[in-house]
Amino acid sequence: MCAVELLQKRRDDFHTLVLAQDAVAYGDKLAAGQGWGQRALQALDLDRDRLHLHGMKPRPDYLRVLQASSAHVYFTEPFVTSWSLSEALAAGCLVIGSLTPPVEELITDMQTGILVDMDDPEEVADMIEWAFDHPAEVAAIRARARAMICDRYAAEGGFADKAARLAALIAGTRTG
User: Fold this and answer.
1) Fewest beta carbons less than 10 Å away: which of 37, 78, 120, 168?
2) How far apart are the C-alpha atoms of 3 and 118, rounded to whole Å?
3) Where does the signal sequence lie (predicted)?
């Protein structure tokens, strides 16, 4: 949100859509009625006309948002990535992610996404702005990211293929 504050000051055309619950998923809970989003709104000078806060959306709506987005900012502490990182990459969305080991498992900087120091709002803002100003390069990154996810995790040759081989083994037949 600090990067959002910087970008709102730099660009009149900058809008941010946030789809989230203002709740703590991991770590210590905050006091009743408080969330990190609420804290950011109180602490930062944000133009609320260009900050669009929405709760969670049904998956089809969420996918449409990813596909239409200029960038999806994904930060996590060294822990694990969630399904949403793979989903964003598979949707062809440019992901600007934290330079942390779990994110680096899926994102190679400037190849399948952009990696940033999530504690450096200036760097985050700079890379979001770079994405706006370099559409051809971003299109190539988005295409490589989607291809990488499809190659690694597509059901064909993955679970579906293994399930068919297991079923054939149980039935006493062989598959190619």
Assistant:
1) 78
2) 10
3) none
**Which amino acid, one-letter code, is at 41?**
L
| Residue predicted with more confidence, 74 or 30 | 74
Determine the Cα–Cα distance for residues 150 and 14; give it in Å rounded to an integer: 31
The 3-state DSSP class for residue 170 equals helix
pLDDT in tens, 76-129: 876 788 888 999 999 999 999 999 999 999 999 999 999 999 999 999 999 999
Rounded-to-integer distance, Cα 126 and Cα 115, Å: 12
Distances (CA, A) of 117 to 39, 96, 114, 126: 21, 10, 10, 11
Which residue do the tokens 């709104």 mark? 41
HSE at residue 144, side-chain half, CA atoms within 13 A, is: 16
Tokens of 88: 């964003």
Dist CA 8 CA 139 (whole Å): 24
Q: Tens of pLDDT along 11-26?
A: 999 999 998 877 776 6
All domains of the chain in start order, with CATH: 1-56 (no CATH), 66-176 (3.40.50.2000)
